[in-house]
Amino acid sequence: MAAEAQTDLLKTALYDRHVAAGGRMVEFGGYALPVQYAGIVAEHNHTRQAASLFDVSHMGQVVITGPDRDSTIAALEALTPADLASLAPGQMRYTVLLNDEGGIEDDLIITRPAEGQEPDGVMYMVVNAARKHHDLEFIRAKAPADVTFDLRDDIALIALQGPRAAEVLAEHSDITGKLGFMQAGPAVVGGISVNVSRSGYTGEDGFELSVTNQDAPALFDLLVADPLVEPAGLGARDSLRLEAGLCLYGHDMTDTIDPVSAGLLFAIGKRRRTEGGFTGADAVLERLAKGADDKRVGIRFEGRQPVREGADLVDASGTVIGKITSGTFAPTAQASIAMGYVPADIAKEGEPVTAMVRSKPIVGTIAKMPFVPQRYYRKPT
User: Fold this and answer.
1) pLDDT tens-digit profile of 231-242?
2) Which letter does DSSP use for residue 176 in this model?
3) Are 97 and 135 a contacting pair, CB within 8 Å?
4) Up-side HSE of residue 183: CA atoms within 13 Å toward CB?
5) Exposure string (b/e) for 244-278, b if CB count within 10 Å is 16 or more?
6) Which end of the chain, N or C, is surrounded by fewer C-beta atoms within 10 Å?
7) Please, are residues 14 and 156 in contact by the beta-carbon 8 Å criterion?
8) CB atoms within 10 A of CB 294
9) Runs of H (alpha helix) within 149-280
């Protein structure tokens, strides 16, 4: 039976669908969201084998509008280390919002709308739920007055993820054949107008569909009616992203962790490494040149005992040398896996490391990430 959500929590446009489907509702980012339906492991495995539907409407969808494209790009490049000037129409880019010390205020995805979809000065941005109001306050304090950032509370976001997601979506739209990984564009899915991106947070091929709150329940019903599709909750989303080696804000990265230490060098454009010009550039480029003191690593532990966030990592003498930031027993990898930070000189694949769980040592080895292969679809060139 679905648990009743607290009355003071925000609800997405799909709340009633979650309750009707037996979703166990919990608080996340200020919202009532399903942590699971049939069970976390079952939902995880179904996503890896077929296709699952996730409600990610708690994420902040922001429309950025400037007087022209150059003005909008300049404002965004002053805030992030991404090379956004090179974005083609319909292309997306992952990057980070940094403070003056180079710490990560949030991670985000910025999209240039498809050709003719929006006026020239418009860009889209998706930010984390728990940080969206903070991010907007932070951004607006730094951005020029003629570039506006509008949080769209009138639209939902639904993620269709898994190796058969394209097959499912192709039943209702021809957009699947037009998009490769990290590309987006407008589409009509089952008579419903949506903006579709080929992206996600599971390591699988998949799509995220931005749709009005009014149309979101009908879109959910349409997709979940497919026999290949099952609804999935936050629990499976977390274990899937951890297997894929993807960071979770507030855990694997924070406002005191820089992108070099976090292993997010791909979020810093090559041009920006030379030019700088973004908030926190001095600190980040110095760290890039000299190297990080600590680095985020993947760890595979012996046995099935999960090693959770906050567990200390110790050396042979028992001295604390690092901490776990995310950990679980991974259904696909069939191993106890984790991410954490260790001194840079031991951040090497195959290096032994020990975690302390309730005063008990759990032996592990630094492992290559992702823990399972990522299966994003990249269009042939």
Assistant:
1) 999 999 999 999
2) G
3) yes
4) 16
5) bbbbbbebbbebebbbbbbbbeebbbeebbeeeeb
6) C
7) yes
8) 18
9) 165-170, 216-224, 234-243, 270-275
User: Could you report the per-residue pLDDT of 198-233, keeping only the tens digit for each?
Assistant: 999 999 999 999 999 999 999 999 999 999 999 999
47 is written with which tokens? Answer: 């996503």
> Which SS3 state, helix, strand or coil, does residue 104 take?
strand
- Angle 79-85-91 from CA coordinates, rounded to 5°: 100
**Side by side, which strands form the sheet with 122-127?**
92-98, 104-111, 122-127, 60-65, 148-151
- CATH topology agreement for domains 10-56+154-243 and 293-381: no
Judge whether residue 129 has pLDDT over 70.
Answer: yes
134-190: per-residue pLDDT in tens? 999 999 999 999 999 999 999 999 999 999 999 999 999 999 999 999 999 999 999
Q: Over pLDDT 90: what percentage of the chain?
A: 97
Helix axes 40-49, 234-243, angle to 10 degrees: 60
The two structure tokens encoding residue 248: 């979770």
Can you read off the two tokens belonging to residue 5?
Answer: 């959500």
Tokens of 353: 């490391």
The residues spanned by each domain of the chain are 10-56+154-243, 293-381
Residue found under tokens 């001194």:
343
- The domain defined by 293-381 folds into Elongation Factor Tu (Ef-tu); domain 3 (2.40.30)
